[in-house]
Amino acid sequence: MDLSGILKKAREKRFALTPSEIASLLDVEAGADRADLFEAAYAVKCMYSGRNVSLRGLIEMGNACAKNCLYCGIRRDNAKVERFHLFEDQVVRMAEWAHREGYGSVVIQSGEMESDEHTEFVAAILRRIAGFSGGELGVTLSLGEQREEVYRYWREAGARRYLLRIETSSPELYRRLHPPDHSFHRRVGCLRALRKLGYQVGSGVMSGLPGQTVGHLANDMLFFRDMDIDMIGMGPFVPHPDTPLGEGTTLSARYLSEQLHIGLKMIAVARLYLHDVNIAATTVLQTLAPDGREQGLLAGANVLMPNITDAAYREKYMLYPNKPCIGENAGQCRGCLSLRVTGIGEAILWDQSGDSPHYAARCGNRTGAV
Ligand code: 5AD
Ligand code: SF4
Ligand code: FES
Q1: Could you report the per-residue pLDDT of 221-264, keeping only the tens digit for each?
Q2: To the nearest whole percent, how much of the chain has pLDDT over 90?
Q3: Which CATH number applies to 3-362: 3.20.20.70, 2.70.70.10, 3.20.20.190, 3.40.120.10?
Q4: Distance from residue 67's CA to the centre of ligand 3 (Å)
Q5: d(C-alpha 279, C-alpha 13), whole Å
Q6: Span from the CA of 1 to the centroid of ligand 1 (angstroms)
Q7: CA nearest 306: which of 60, 33, 21, 27?
Q8: Single pTM value for the model
């Protein structure tokens, strides 16, 4: 089938594409074909969420991590990182700010830590956010792999959504990206547990990884379908010089533009294949091009995650190099992103928690309310 036939089929029905058709879309070159791909994906996103963008205020709660992922700038063995952890009051203050400023939801993210103290710390924050917002402010956690009891405890304390990227759906590639004690199967088990506990579940992958093929990326799409994922946050890999996977790499303009190219195509293909999930235009896209996040929205994403962490901590949360908004504060990012969104003719859904239409549909509720 030619490109326009594949795009027509994909627009009409979710899951319509075969793995080889998915791969052929992921393979399109920059130019007219890619413009057609993005246009088709944007049309599908408009079918489900109109010309609107949902916001999640991102709180980077701490950069200590027990894990040692080979690509990540805050991995345990990176001794150059100055570690920080916010106090409970600081996190609550940032969430209050977000609520006041019309962000319908926040994401609380940190490195991975498993301890009773950490579990209680997070639960206390969740209860305080539920208290001051009367349950209005949606809370997404992004705190890595935890025991099922911990996920249950946090759900009961008020968390509604959880983000846990699978990074790649290929167990073999996963093994090459992580030390031997990091388990692909445990991560899949965590995603299943979260789903069972009633969370809206988000996952995602990195694209443009060394050794990754278009076949791997096509399989990532099938993984999202099979795991019935509600929200997707994915972005291209950017080599970090202080990590095993990034050391010695130079970031040429050509490399960065190739990473952006594959990252945008992943968004478009996820939209065309899965239709009703929330997809974030992640911050890493802005590392690759000044208008990278806007490009992500025009390729089919419908969510932005403005950083609302106090400027003092931002430079310590460098998962990848050249992260944008390091010198800016929460108010500046709010203003800047609002202009970026209106600049491409989209509107921000202020004061709405912005549930994934996929989640609403599987709860038997097409209107989007939980
Ligand atoms: N480049 C791009 N994304 C990265 N992440 C971690 N390190 C990098 C990197 N070097 C992503 C991972 C992780 C998320 C928090 O950040 O996908 O799940
Ligand atoms: Fe820790 Fe996440 Fe970075 Fe892995 S990717 S080292 S789990 S912060
Ligand atoms: Fe942070 Fe533009 S989004 S300064």
Answers
A1: 999 999 999 999 999 999 999 999 999 888 999 999 999 999 99
A2: 95
A3: 3.20.20.70
A4: 29
A5: 18
A6: 35
A7: 60
A8: 0.96
